[in-house]
Amino acid sequence: MDSNKVVPAWAGALAGVVAGAVALGVAYVVAAVLAPDSFPVVAVADAVVDLSPAPLKDWAIRTFGESDKTVLVGGVSVVLTAVAAVIGVLSRRSVRLGQAGLALFAVVGLLAVLTRPDAGALDGLSTVVGALAGSWALTLLLGRAVTPAGEARTDVLAGEGSPARPGPEEPAEAGRPAVMRAGAQLYAFDRRRLMVGVAGGLAVAGASGLAGQVLSGRRVGDTARAEIALPRPATPAAPLPRGADLRLDGLSPFVTPNKDFYRVDTAIVVPQVDPKDWTLRIHGLVDRPVELTFDDLLRRPLTEADITLTCVSNEVGGPYVGNARWLGVRMADVLRQAGLRADADMLLSTSADGFTCGTPVDVVMDGRDALFAFAMNGEALPVEHGFPVRQVVPGLYGYVSATKWVVDIKVTRFDTDKAYWTPRGWAEKGPIKTQSRIDLPKQGQTVQAGRTTVAGVAWAQHTGIEAVEVRIDGGAWQRARLAQVPGPDTWRQWALDWDAPAGEHTIEVRATDAAGRTQTGQQAPIAPDGATGWHSVSVRVV
Ligand SMILES: Nc1nc2c(c(=O)[nH]1)N[C@H]1C(S)=C(S)[C@@H](COP(=O)(O)O)O[C@H]1N2
Ligand SMILES: [Mo]
């Protein structure tokens, strides 16, 4: 039946959008039960992340920061809504056409879902069931959009009983809806019936969305996490020196609370890994492949260490750095058990969601506290920080070392394998560059004239910070006082008292590492291997 002329375009678009909402709501609840990242919107967003060129990704991280994922999912949703509206408008001509549009959509969703590295056999189900629900809703809604408007006058009918065939329409006039005919029947647009259908569709979409939300609220990671009793470490961390935290208002605390710890990853939906099912497989260039369960890991001699993690995407003065006390097993112990071959120079670690890091073997084996960590600041790893197990390697940026939800280590060579970020324009190896940051005063702050404190943090992981200097308005460098540190693997707080005169002032900072190397003032962008330059803030003193 051709409802093209009788159903206005806006009503078609509305039907399309509501049908789309039903499709997504149903897909969401099915995905919540089966596998949360099989939700097609998430899978498509994931595919966008993986396929988009590095500069675009960097721009997104810079522009949207930690809300980049929200923005992306929002963007995908806007596109989906627009396409659903178009499908609805087309469906007025033929419901088949609309169904074909939906099917095409489902194929795109399915492709995104099934090409995920961790895709399971059932993962396509949410997309398929969602598309069927959407198609059903669309047919129902368009059926409701028209209503019989009495018998057609027989004298204009070409032939009784002939298949439904569009006839000439009677144009809409004020107060009288357009009608059309199918066989002997005249049809008119029925706004009221459509709206009742729309309300019903929205109710279905809302209810299934809500159900999906409730179901995905209690995920296996969260429940399993609460049940873990942390064993005592064989090698505890040295007690924190008294003066490790200067406790200044506005200065980053020495230990970053888990809830404030920065998060950077490619996962749109946080992988939910049950420690009961978790294993870590170590294979490749080894004498004896090893497979560990979570219990195996907990039974080994444990090491606890304070380590500051840094992201290569951290701009000078940026927030993607945090310090925590980690508990885990030394990677070197496990690798020695496997027996590394002499030609191996890279550990290609893979996460439960298919992300990979390439970590230099020599760094992990040189005696530093490179860990398979399962606890952070005295609690089991938060799910978004890699529960049940992640890597932490002092001195290397996260993208080459800190694999969260780690499940597999292939011992290999840099000339054989490429990790996730390497073909995307980032350096193969990522040692952390020495940096320092001014936490207070803040950029643009108005400060009272007189004695005030300038303070911040500096880091040069696994070498340590030996000095921090500050200068005002390009003047002489002045030594800041340094807080104590437990070792070379954490950041170090610093502070300087400043007798601030009225006016506009610029404060700059630079650090020198324990090997005597002073941080360069030369500015470099974050790609390919980390930003350089001195952090500066401008303040107004009154
Ligand atoms: N599975 C997985 N692990 C990952 C990443 C990722 O995208 N996926 N990102 C890495 C990067 S770039 C950084 S900086 C750190 C950040 O760890 P955090 O989120 O716990 O702070 O995790 C690393 N581990
Ligand atoms: Mo990172």
UniProtKB/TrEMBL annotation:
It comes from the Bacteria. Residues 269-418 form the Oxidoreductase molybdopterin-binding domain. Keywords: Membrane, Transmembrane, Transmembrane helix. The chain crosses the membrane at residues 12-35, 71-90, 97-115, 121-143, 194-215. The keyword Transcription regulation does not apply. The keyword Transmembrane applies. GO terms for molecular function: heme binding; molybdopterin cofactor binding; sulfite oxidase activity. GO terms for biological process: sulfur compound metabolic process. Residues 156-176 are annotated as: Disordered. This is DMSO/TMAO reductase YedYZ molybdopterin-dependent catalytic subunit. It comes from Nonomuraea dietziae.
